[in-house]
Amino acid sequence: MNWPHKDLIAIQNLTADEIGHVLDMASSFKEISKRDIKKVPTLRGKTVVLLFYEPSTRTRLSFEIAAKRLSADTVALSASGSSFSKGETIMDAAYNVMAMAPDCIVIRYPSAGIPAKMAELLSCSVINGGDGFHEHPTQALLDMYSLKEHFGRIEGLTVAIVGDIMHSRVARSNVYGLVKMGARVVLVAPKTLLPPGVELWGASVTNELDPVIPEADAVMMLRVQNERLNERFFSGAREYSIFYGLNRKRVEMMKDGAVIMHPGPMNRGVEITHDAADSARSIILDQVENGVAVRMTLLYLSMGGTANVD
Amino acid sequence: MWIKGGTIIDPANGIEQVGDIHIREGLIAGVYLTGCAETDDEVIDASGLWVLPGLIDMHVHLREPGYEYKEDIASGSRAAASGGVTTVVCMPNTDPVNDNPSVTRYIVEKARHTAVIRVLPAGAITRGLKGADLSEMGLMKAAGIVAVTDDGKSVEDSSVMRRAMEYAATFGLPVISHCQDRSLSASGVMNEGDLSSRLGLGGIPGIAEDIVISRDVLLAQYTGIPIHITHVSTASGLDIIRQAKQAGVRVSCDVTPHHLLLTEDRVRGYDTNAKMYPPLRSREDMLALVEGIRSGVVDCIATDHAPHAKDEKDLDFDLAPFGVIGLQTLLPGVFRLHREYGIDFSRLLACVTCNPARILGIEGGTLSPGARGDVTLFDPEALWTLTPESVLSKSTNSPFLGQEFAGKVIQTIVAGRSVYRI
After folding, report:
1. Labelling B64: which of A2, B109, B354, B380 has CA 20 to 30 A away?
2. What would the pLDDT profile of A122-149 be if each residue is shown by its tens digit?
3. Which chain A residues are closer than 8 Å to B269 by Cβ?
4. How close B273 gets to chain A, by Cα (Å)?
């Protein structure tokens, strides 16, 4: 397949064929990480700038390792150590970075639309590392990869996504992708955490977790952010964990072979208990491992590197 | 001055005919059928043009004093003149706020020296727009304000709003209400709905507006004091106003051209020139507003001209300020409504001339003999495109940039003096 995109901004912009292509290619990239010498020259001479205007451990590390395993040079910049904290606007920062001729910018930003704007205005590749409540496309692709790796397929799977759908870019990107790939998606949340128009996304929507658990092939738990509590979207961690948390009892209700997923970071004891997070069903660390392979694929595709992975 | 041979449209008098207008000593001396006696006066040949009462835009931010980098009275008045607007009412959310007669006098004086059109200030309802203590409405009225409003905010406290209406009525000042329940609009930046969820932007539900419209209409009903609701954007909000009018409540309203011509779809692509309060709504809302003009529920069309500098608008969608400019596209926008929806042009014109004059209790908005000699000459055949270069405001934040308009202002006359000519 000839990859038609300079940038990766949103799963909404990808076709099922394109998603399938990324997932297929990621398998060969994953193999690189299992070698003694975990490095190929594919992106030698390319420069990848990681601009993170929001805290991140996993995504940033994952992109950096992915780029380095492809021999790209990486520079990481976070909001606190940059001119952003001096009041420089994001687009000024972007033009300044652009003047230093990077081949790719990975951007995470607290409000929606900036990665799209950068992709439109900059000549280098732009990969969205998560923008506001909009999208987190690489997370969804690594989640889909993990499902495909585990089940051998995505089509026909039932995936429950549980928690703060309203404020979750991970949920949005996953719904758009999973629905395109033929999965059945069930969104579970209290009414206060469901965004308007969610019923148009092609997923089913419910406020009750227990009936969903036995039918799901995968249960994906979303992080509950403390600030939502302050904004009174629900009454507190105790009640939330009882109605929407994944605990031992619910793990036992899951069907044979079903898996537990979480994009991290986990709030243990709120949306997920330790015996769920650490159970044999959990593929949470596989997700992290696969993140590197999927991001290697996306860096490669976006920058149009040579296909020599040997 | 004679304006000869144009199609004269004067909704206040139900006139729509080819004829001549005579302006003498700044006032309309008479409207004549055609080809009257020879004259030594200046003659403007208006054949092929529409001759209209100068437009009144009852909702404009001129930003002076305090935000002259966005706009000032001089630049805003030139933009208005080029849009055929001969009177603007400028909002009090300047720095300092126009909540006392000193600021009012400053604006009036500045307008006298720098404005090419008539600038009428609106005063604040509450001191500092803080929603608590009433401003010096009586003294400001004496200094020149024509209305009071806390535009940009609602007066949250219902008791303060009630007293404000009673106090304003004491001095014969109309109250203009910006309706926004901040606890509901919260951190929203666009219309709440499927699209805001998809774009990942915070939503502003229509009820944030409707709840306050309801309250203000109920206050008007209870007190018997008129209220003017500005920039209505929802079908449901307009319904509340329609029902109130039917029940005899003294409520009037205006709608902006952008809410009549654009929908939330304009936000796709995260263009901050599509960010304003109230936000662009759904297609159903837009069509309901258009229908409201046809049915007469909507009294006025006003721009909410809100200049913001490019640097401010170049921020991300969440951070960029609310507001768009509109003075130069007011009449072409109104004309587009005539062409696209077949609404009687005279009815549309009333929304920007005699209706605002009546609600504000000011002169103008008509070509009756003895009225102010404010006249706009409009070429309905001309085509033009709004570009950043063609904008006369200091700021170019228009949601219509790049769009072609039919109909162009050819000349604008204020009190018998030509202030703009193409």
Report:
1. B354
2. 999 999 999 999 999 999 999 999 999 9
3. 116
4. 14
Instruction: Determine the residue among A88, A92, A111 to mutate to test chain B binding: the one whose Cβ has the most chain B Cβ atoms within 10 Å.
Output: A111
Q: What pTM, to 2 d.p., does this model score?
A: 0.93
Q: Please, what CATH class does the domain formed by A11-135+288-303 belong to? A: alpha beta
Minimum-distance CB partner of A114 among B198, B202, B316: B316
Lowest mean pLDDT among A73-87, B10-24, B356-370: A73-87
Which residue type, as a one-letter code, is found at position B198? Answer: R
Is B254 a residue of the active site?
no
CA-wise closest residue to B12 among B54, B74, B43: B54
Which pLDDT band holds residue A85 (cuts at 50, 70, 90)?
low
- β-pairing verdict for A73-78 and A47-52: parallel
- What does the DSSP assignment read for B9-51? EEGGGTEEEEEEEEEETTEEEEEESS-----SS-EEE-TTSEE
d(CA B46, CA A95): 51
- Each residue's pLDDT tens digit, B265-318: 999 999 999 999 999 999 999 999 999 999 999 999 999 999 999 999 999 999
Shortest distance, CA B300 to any CA of chain A (angstroms): 32
Catalytic residue among B57, B254, B304, B374: B304
d(CA B408, CA B87): 18
- Structural domains in chain B, CATH included, are 54-362 (3.20.20.140)
| The predicted structure's pLDDT at residue B274 | 98
pLDDT at A307: 46
The Cα–Cα gap between B74 and B132 comes to: 32
Burial class for B68, CB neighbours closer than 10 Å (0-12, 13-18, 19+): middle
Which residues of chain A neighbour B207 with C-beta distances below 8 Å?
Answer: none
* Separation CA B106–CA B117 (nearest Å): 16
Q: What is the pLDDT of residues A169-179, one digit of tens each?
A: 999 999 999 99
* Chain A contacts to B (CB-CB under 8 A): 12, 89-91, 109-114, 116-117, 131-135, 166, 169, 172, 195-198, 200
What does the alpha-carbon distance between residue B60 and residue B80 come to, in Å, rounded to a whole number?
A: 10
Mean pLDDT, rounded, of chain B: 97
Contacts of B319 in chain A (CB under 8 A): 111
User: What pLDDT was estimated at residue B36?
Assistant: 62
Predicted complex: ipTM over 0.95: no
Question: Which CATH architecture best describes the domain A137-284?
Answer: 3-Layer(aba) Sandwich (3.40)
Average pLDDT, integer, range B29-50: 85
Which of B200, B269, B319 faces A133 most closely, judged by CB atoms? B200
CB contact under 8 A, A112 and B192: no
Residues of A in contact with B192 (CB under 8 A): 196
Boundaries of every domain in chain A: 11-135+288-303, 137-284
